[in-house]
Amino acid sequence: MRYRFDAEDGNNAFITIVRDAEYKEGGVLSGIPVAVKDNISTKGIPTTCGSKILEGYVPPYDAHAVAMIKEAGAVIVGKTNMDEFGMGTTTENSAYFPTTNPCDRTCVPGGSSGGSAAAIASDMVPMALGSDTGGSIRCPAAFCGIVGLKPTYGRVSRFGLIAYSNSLEQIGPMAKNVTDVSKLMEVISKPDIYDSTAYNRPYVHTPSAQIKGKKIAVPKEYFGEGVDDKVADCVRGAISKLEEMGAEIIDCSIPSMKYALAAYYVTCTSEASSNLSRFDGVRFGPKVEMKRSWHDEYRDYRGERFGEEVQRRILLGTFALSAGYYGKYYAKAQVARSNIRNDFLRVLNEADLIAGPTMPNTAFKIGEKSSNPLEMYLADILTVPANLAGVPAISVPCGKVGGMPVGLQIIGRHFDEESVVDAAFAYEQEVN
Amino acid sequence: MSDSNSGCGCGCGDGKGCAGAAKPSEKDVKDLKVIIGLEIHCQLNTKTKLFCGCSADFRDDAPNTHVCPICLGLPGALPKLNKQAVIYALKVAKALNLEISEVSEFSRKNYFYPDLPKGYQISQYDKPIALRGKMTVDDDEGHEKVIRITRIHLEEDPGRLVHKISRDRAGYTLVDYNRSSIPLIEIVTEPDLSSPKEARRFLNKLRATLEYLDVFDGEKEGSIRVDANISLEGHNRVECKNISSYKGVEKALTFEITRQRNLIRRGQEIVQETRHFLEGRGITTGSRSKEDENDYRYFPEPDLKPLRVKDWADKIELPELPDAKRERFMSQYKISVNHAKTLVGDIKVADFYEGILKNPAISKETELAATWVCDTLLGELYYRDMKIDAVPRECFADLVALLKDKKVTDKVAVDVLRAMLDDIHEGRKCAMPSETVEKSGLGKGSDDEFTEIIKKVVAANPQAVADYHSGKGNAINFIVGQIMKETKGRADPKSLNKLIVDYIASME
């Protein structure tokens, strides 16, 4: 069947729009337009990762998640804007253009899956695929007032997801509501033998608003320094609501959180420095006339086509893995990471879920933080722990501060997306 | 490098007079112990590549026809480990007596090069699949010695660069990714080898062992590549890279020892460095300055899980390996140790030998068969650059049967064998030796038949007879040679000798 996609892209959510698309009738997503983040390979549709280094690259194969949604009848209507290779929190790092926040076009949509969030929030599509390395689904979901789920590491195949940080990232569903997120999750979590880090644990679940008797732990670190008071109040209100509905709220602490950002940035930049080596102009991407020594051509090609933030992270990661520094940085980061994982396992042994804000604040103004990378990194503090621990986490809208959406983050045990989705669904049903 | 004109005269290049390094005596230099360690990369002959389903049998096919998103390193593609390659590596590890690691891990070796599609090679670093093994080899005096194996690890081969010169004589380079992701094992030895010849014997035995295990085909071009570390006792170590043949290893090492000895003779320091072996010229050249040396930034491959395959290894049953086969050949067939070693040195030769013995006509002629395979057939094959598989076993068995029954002389047998190999080599049908001999009348003649010829030759060569009488026993050999010529080798030289001596004696 053919699908005519006429929606207007007022927020620059898409890098590539497929106006006239084909789909297969009959599946659970039959005829539903779905947007796909531009770092997820789509056969025949350009896939750029928001980078000039992949300008014009058309993958010859579909990512597993894409193959699954096509199989389910979804219409792929385009590829959404993102921070280059997923490196950013605002989608301002796209090499093409920034995306604006549909709630306030002077604000960023969050990132790095900002295009997917904006496409949903502006009603262009009901659902989209994003990817989450350190909060890239949950941050824009919170900033744009939609729902986004980062699955357990290994529950969705990464095959075809252009790697930024392999050990942290997952493809995940984004939508206006929890029901659609759950539906999309069911489709993309089908097993895949081509991702050796994926488990055969398909998600088959219909959300139910069951929250009574669930133990929800609230870590004090999620309301600590740097978290906007009004955002904190808004989220506390949402957690009280869950308590009113019958959940048992307990206080807890995740002391290892203070190492989370450092562990995260060392790990992701190290992996990125290696993952991004393949972009050398030899096999794919923009054509280069290699007339000089390969060394000179590589240097100039990569120097000209990678953006500033990407180059910064490649340099950081290369340094962290270098002889003599590996032990000081990469190895230490892995120790910190396993401490964080253990802290989460401990808390999630006593409680069913963990709740807190998704982001320490609401969406920034465009340009507000783009000149200060370090300050930008700090905004990831509440989302990166779930990636480091590998646990599932959802962001569901829980009100507004100053007219801008706030996200409630609910984190669960490994492979227990079901409880996470149910809690988010219960909250969503209660407030709507 | 400076020369002897510099001030201190020791060749150190220091005009002010060098601090130490007095020139050692010639004997000291000659006696310096040679220390060699090898890193051997072997392609495993699995059906498919190490991390994707592309066929690994690419040698006869056009460039870039055995490729897919995974082995091309396209964005988003992930490696999927080939179980067969792991099992092959485990087989080798077991055969070389290594301990299989409880947990091993793949790591990324990061460096840029146009033949390396991902910008890193998936290899193993600090947690290889197996550690600490050993293999015996004969030293230069023929004594068996133990060479310790440090480790074995699995890794993927990169693609291949093809350098071309275009019509306007500007060079350009093409990349062929057919080889990309072919499974390799790297076998690292301790520095236990003490001569280039010993290193070559080690490699030959290793190759034989890998072929016994049926995990490696040494005849495929580029299937083995060796890096050799070599030093002279008390001096710096040099790494020779890029050696791609067994002969090359011996050559490179011999060259290096000479080069290093000469430096030491002149009182110069050996620079610890990586050198490239230029196969065509048989020399090594310093290849990299310090600045070009790579920091590979190894870290665990996040796209693959750690390997826990110890129980796979436990289930592997090894075939009979060269040492065991040698022992069995010696006891079962009562052949000499040298023949046994030669036969088991290549599983195809060993199989050929046992194959011809299946022929009832010669099944008891184990020594005769071993002698003819080892001392004649292998040399004739080598001379023609032929493989033993090309020789029909029934033909060779027939030849051995003729020898057993003394129907042909050794000389005729060699001629028949040569004709047989030439026929095969040039694509003609190879006839049974017994038929050839019958048709061409090459069968050994009777003594009576030769008596006339002896009379004739002796009569024609009175000088030789005179020489014989004056005590020059060798003169008989001349007459034997003449008669052999006359009879086209059909006569047995030993019995001829006796006939001639008897005849000359009867003339008196």
Find the CATH topology of the largest domain in chain A. Amidase signature (AS) enzymes
Class by SSE composition of chain B: alpha+beta
β-strand number of chain B: 14
| Shape designation of chain B | elongated
What is the terminal separation of chain A in angstroms? 35 Å
Mean of the pLDDT scores of chain A? 96
Amount of helix of chain B: 25-40%
Question: How would you sum up the major sheet of chain A?
Answer: 11 strands, mixed
- Give the spatial strand order of the biggest sheet of chain B: 2-5-6-9-1-10-11-12-13
Helix and strand string of chain A, N-terminal first? EEEEHEHEHEEHEHEHHHHEHHEEH
Structural class of chain A: alpha/beta
**What is the quaternary state of this protein?**
heterodimer
What is the CATH homologous superfamily assignment of the largest domain in chain A? Amidase signature (AS) domain
Mean pLDDT of chain B: 87
Radius of gyration of chain B: 30 Å
Gyration radius of chain A (Cα, Å) is: 20 Å
What fraction of the residues of chain A are assigned to beta strands by DSSP? 15-25%
List descriptors.
heterodimer; A: 432 residues; alpha/beta; Amidase signature (AS) enzymes; 11-stranded mixed sheet; two-stranded antiparallel ribbon; 12 helices; globular; B: 508 residues; alpha+beta; Arc Repressor Mutant, subunit A; 3 domains; 9-stranded mixed sheet; 3-stranded antiparallel sheet; 16 helices; 39% helix; disordered N terminus
Question: How would you describe the overall organization of this protein?
Answer:
The complex is a heterodimer of chains A (432) and B (508). Chain A is α/β, with parallel strands linked by helices and 432 residues long. Chain A has 2 domains: 2-214 and 352-376 and 383-431, Amidase signature (AS) domain (Amidase signature (AS) enzymes), CATH 3.90.1300; 258-332, no CATH class. Chain A has helices at residues 64-71, 114-121, 138-144, 178-188, 229-244, 260-275, 294-305, 308-321, 330-350, 373-378, 384-389, 417-431; strands at residues 2-4, 14-17, 20-22, 33-37, 75-80, 127-132, 147-150, 170-175, 215-219, 248-252, 353-357, 393-401, 404-411. In chain A, the strands form 2 sheets. Chain A has an 11-stranded mixed beta sheet with strand order 2-5-4-6-8-7-12-13-11-9-10, sandwiched between helices. In chain A, strands 1-3 form a two-stranded antiparallel ribbon. Chain A is globular, with a radius of gyration of 20 Å. The two termini of chain A are 35 Å apart. With 508 residues, chain B is of the alpha+beta class. Chain B is 39% helix and 17% strand. In chain B, the strands form 3 sheets. A 9-stranded mixed beta sheet of chain B has the order 2-5-6-9-1-10-11-12-13. In chain B, strand 11 (238-243), helix 4 (246-265) and strand 12 form a beta-alpha-beta unit. In chain B, helix 8 (347-357) packs across helix 10 and helix 13 crosses helix 16 (493-507). The longest helix of chain B has 20 residues, at 246-265.
